[in-house]
Design a protein that fits this description.
Elements: H1 3-18, E1 22-25, E2 34-40, E3 45-50, E4 53-59, E5 68-74, E6 78-79, H2 83-90, E7 102-116, E8 119-130, E9 133-146, H3 150-153, E10 159-171, E11 189-201
Antiparallel strand pairs: 1-4, 2-3, 2-11, 3-6, 4-5, 5-7, 7-8, 8-9, 9-10, 10-11
């Protein structure tokens, strides 16, 4: 094979080697990953967070539009400052965390993908499951791909990081959570903010 034919082939082979998607694990050893929720009703504002986050995301920095994955939140990790409100939140009358131990979002496709440097914004569509009910939703998301930065977050671990930020709203009535009840104290609309980082350790 002539040299001028071989060089393009080598370039294509090298590009293919770097184009493989990475799998990022969102079970955070630091326990920093969190989801924040807010319900702002006329009489009361309920604010809380959840830290029991796991899941995996497949992300290709050369083709971020092909991103897929599933994020899982342990429902019993949801907490609010008021102990009685927390007890009610976990009870069978509300989230029923014993019967429905997981809240999940499974990403299926991305649209309006825009990449600037190491940051990609998009609209992610997928299935959100809460209280045993699954709904298809679309939400804005931002991915930040940080190559070789895992050791800066988790000492003695080398690899890459993927940071995900998302903010969207759902309605508790859509998920059969006390439909039409207590709306003066517990808002129907729930504002959700996700701030998580996943690790892809060097093999």
């Amino acid at each position: 094979m002539k040299l001028n034919h071989l060089i393009p082939l080598l370039c294509l082979t090298t590009a293919a080697a770097y184009a493989a998607p990475e799998t990022f694990d969102f079970k955070d050893p630091k326990g920093v990953n969190n989801a924040v929720f807010k319900l702002d009703a006329p009489l009361e504002s309920v604010n809380g967070s959840a830290s029991g986050i796991t899941g995996t995301v497949s992300f290709d920095p050369e083709n971020p539009g092909a991103t897929t994955g599933k994020i899982v939140v342990a429902s019993d990790s949801m907490t609010v400052p008021n102990p009685m409100q927390k007890e009610h939140l976990h009870s069978a009358n509300w989230l029923d965390t014993t019967k429905y131990p997981e809240i999940t979002f499974e990403a299926k496709s991305l649209a309006n993908v825009k990449t600037d440097g190491n940051t990609t914004t998009a609209d992610v569509s997928g299935t959100f499951t809460l209280h045993g009910v699954s709904k298809d939703i679309t939400a804005p998301v931002k991915f930040t791909y940080l190559k070789d930065k895992l050791s800066a977050r988790v000492p003695k671990m080398n690899g890459d990081l993927l940071v995900i930020r998302a903010n969207f709203n759902i309605n508790r009535e859509d998920f059969n959570i006390q439909k039409g009840q207590y709306e003066d104290k517990v808002a129907n609309e729930i504002d959700l903010t996700l701030s998580i980082a996943g690790a892809s350790p060097t093999k």
